[in-house]
Write a structure and sequence with these properties.
Helix content is 31%, strand content 21%. It is of the alpha+beta class.
């Protein structure tokens, strides 16, 4: 399920995001350990996820998460 638009899609149609310390990164190989969040690879879903502030909930994190590294991927698409 996409955390941005909340629609169901095949896992191959979504981009997996994972945590590297407190930084959210794209896990294109789907091999990083830990909890992942899935998002469509378009800017609208990214903006919805940002607006809804889904990251702490999706990663079960209590502190702020850095989205700057992954933001470039979704704004450049």
């Amino acid at each position: 399920m996409c955390v941005g638009c909340r629609s169901r899609a095949a896992q191959s149609d979504l981009v997996r995001l994972a945590l590297d310390e407190d930084v959210i990164v794209c896990d294109l190989a789907n091999r990083m350990p830990g909890r992942g969040a899935y998002l469509h690879s378009d800017q609208q879903c990214w903006e919805l996820a940002q607006r809804r502030r889904v990251w702490p909930r999706a990663f079960r994190a209590e502190r702020g998460l850095d989205t700057s590294r992954v933001a470039a991927h979704f704004t450049a698409v």
